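Example record for the data management plan.
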Amino acid sequence: MSIWYLLCLLSTLAVLIAFSNQFLVKTQPTIAITAGSLLMSMLLILAGKVFGTEATQELFNLVAEIDFKQFLLDGVLGVLLFAGALEIDLRVMKKQRKEIAVLVLFSTLVSTFIVAYLSYQLLGFMGWPVPFIYCLLFGALISPTDPIAVLAIIKQMKAPENISIQVEGESLFNDGVGLVLFTTILAVALSGTAPTAAGVAHLFLVDAIGGIAFGLVLAFVSHVLIIKSREANIRLLLTICIPTAGFATANLLGISGALAMVVSGIFIGNVTRGKAATMSRYTSVRNVRNFWHAIEGALNALLFLLIGLLLVTLPFTWEEISIGLLMIPIVLLARFISVSLPYLAFRRFRQYDVNAVRILTWGGLRGGLALAMAASIPAGQAVVNGTDIKTLLVTLTYVVVIFSIIVQASTIRPLIEGSIRASANKDS
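Corresponding structural encoding:
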């Protein structure tokens, strides 16, 4: 069976799980899909150990052939980020721009170093002498909140507007900071040399600033073409070119395609859509919105199904799983501290929801982006207790991601509902 056929069948399976969820569990679809695929993975692993069938092994091999890093980082990431950014209200984001900037830059950096230090101490205590540079690498890939997971789950729960825009805005932009941190630390780990301020600054300027600038240029050109087009189908096709050819071009230029897609999506969703509305192109605007909602839903379903199925490809041990479980409170503590510190300053100038820090902490979801970064680490760089450092970091990341998607995402609703009730009582 080819990879294409497998992806087609898996996409159908994801839709069937989402359909069944409407009548059975009735939870958020992406949570149900991840949980369902995780359960199937466990059953397949059990069947393989008990029966050892060739069909089971063949399925294992097929799933293992899917390059998760290439599928996400070099493929559907651009489409998903563009689709999510289309729905960001720029007027609301402007009101929270300072908070989002601090969370993107300060909180990500603080969380990275806290996770690195605490995981280094814990691993050493448990007899796993992992070099600190690799603990720092783990902190860099697990600290940024995942834009795909957040946009797929949080925005559907109707959180208070000020908190919702902070979570969504942070998750959309901090993947650029996270990727810069990750690639810088990875380069240091592979080269064995100390990073320089000039080198880090150059990488950030080229990657992040270059991505933002390219995104603005791409959005402006697309805006002109869309507005001048006389055919509704051509306008729709032009929007497709942005996260496909535009994303590929940004990556080929060595700049952040992710940030380019976020900037382009926000521009098209606010400026171009508003201009089209004034030109009485309401049907076209509605068709574009419906199209991207459908694309986002389909790709999210496939992505979260693959996250669950990745379990069959991991050569994990129960000791590594146990360490991964211990990493969960470390990651949450780092997130809490890195969010709480800025809010001590924020609250001096503005009043915020009483549950703001708790929602931002528990709603700071991790997902496929962290797994893709972990999967991009070259194998054979270091071995600890007979385990390749890449295998160890992928396993730890996978445990944290599964907990984030299934446990955090499915239990954040009470916090959000409490904030909504508090706001309603305050208004009344």
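Summary line stored alongside the record: The CA atoms of residues 210 and 253 lie 9 Å apart.
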